[in-house]
Amino acid sequence: MSPEISTSKYQFDLLKVGVSAEGIAHVEINRPEALNAFSTQTWRELGQCFTRFKSDGNVRCVVLSAAGRMFTAGLDLKEAQSGPLGKPHEEGVDVARKGYYHRLHILEFQEAISTIEKCDKPVIAVVHGPCLGIGIDVISACDIRVATEDAYFMVKEVDIGMAADIGTLQRLPKVVGNDSWVREACLTARKVTSKEALFVGLVSRVLPGKREAMESALETAATIASKSPVAVASTKHLLNYSRDHTVQEGLEYTAAWNALAHNSHDMALAVLSSLKKQKARFPNL
């Protein structure tokens, strides 16, 4: 079910990482005894992993899943209680100075999750069981999301007295495209079933169980990995840019980007293989 590890550089304490010969990486959040709750170490390792993927030509597509009985219980609240989030304001402490360093902590957390989006290799999230709080931040930074029938989603931050601050409020409206639904989900912290998630477009596919969901994700990853890595990286990069800019800005940027990308040997190889009705084999990025 998971690609075999082909390199020792992807070894972490809270992540299991495998890379197949075809260039499919499988990242498994591996903290099942804590219901995959995100500790500081978890999100830092996730950021380190996807930062490395970006410059690793052997990786063409990534599948992100989680071990145990759920995707994630969200933020590790026990750890958070001893960190900046849980410390009450102390008498005599300058609020501006405390806030300055708290802001830096939040920015570091945001950047770690944003590496998923910034990695030019497409990322497919496989969600099973509950996906709570920061889980929404993580999957909304992914390119494709599939879920199991028993999966459900909750933007839980309002239930712990805060607004989601790691990407959900910025990305979810663009993922779903229904402002009313997003506001309802974020303001009520209600449970969203996989069936509803499919209906609103949060996920693209719902499978009976985790095995089927993983098989589906790996099949999609294999298809993507078989394409020109220049074309795939360019497509993801330009989709992200165009999402955040006007149509005209997106067109102009695409023209500048493709002025270079069109010089790839992949285009000629793809056209020739298509004419000969043969499967093209592209070199790594």
Automatic annotation (TrEMBL):
- Supply one GO BP term: fatty acid beta-oxidation
State the compartments where it is located: Peroxisome
* Pfam families, sorted: ECH_1
Main subcellular location of this protein, as a coarse class: other
- Pathway membership of this protein? Lipid metabolism; fatty acid beta-oxidation
Is Isomerase set as a keyword in this record? yes
User: SUPFAM superfamilies under this entry?
Assistant: ClpP/crotonase
Instruction: Identify the GO cellular component terms for this protein.
Output: mitochondrion; peroxisome
Q: Does the keyword Protein biosynthesis apply?
A: no
User: Which positions are tagged coiled coil?
Assistant: none
Keywords attached to this Swiss-Prot or TrEMBL record, sorted alphabetically, are: Acetylation, Fatty acid metabolism, Isomerase, Lipid metabolism, Peroxisome
Q: Which GO terms describe its molecular function?
A: delta(3,5)-delta(2,4)-dienoyl-CoA isomerase activity
Write out the similarity annotation: Belongs to the enoyl-CoA hydratase/isomerase family.
Supply the PANTHER family for this chain: DELTA(3,5)-DELTA(2,4)-DIENOYL-COA ISOMERASE, MITOCHONDRIAL, ENOYL-COA HYDRATASE
User: What is the protein name given in its UniProt record?
Assistant: Peroxisomal enoyl CoA hydratase 1
The species this protein was found in: Coemansia reversa (strain ATCC 12441 / NRRL 1564)
From which lineage does this chain's organism come?
A: Eukaryota, Fungi, Fungi incertae sedis, Zoopagomycota, Kickxellomycotina
